[in-house]
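Q: I'm writing up a methods section and want to include an example of the input and output format. Could you take the sequence below and give the corresponding predicted structure tokens, formatted cleanly so I can copy it straight into the document?
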Amino acid sequence: MELQGNDDTSETETCVTMEVETEVQNKKIDPEGLEEQPKKMKATSSKKFQKPTLGQNVRIKIPDIDRAKMDSRSIIAAITDITDEEFY
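A: Here is the clean output for your methods example:
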């Protein structure tokens, strides 16, 4: 009794390879989108939060990874200096 090779495996491999290549092509990153997204985020943030003034008190959230269970979730700070209209 002679066993014949199964050609279905090579066709299946080719089909899977073509699907993977198509997915990779569809997931290519658009450079224009990378430039637009930060601008949208900045505009949304500017609308959502008012600009602080010198001497104003602000609440700064502390990430969970940086605090112990009994530590405060945030700290109160005062604006002492504004540089480049972005950093306080």
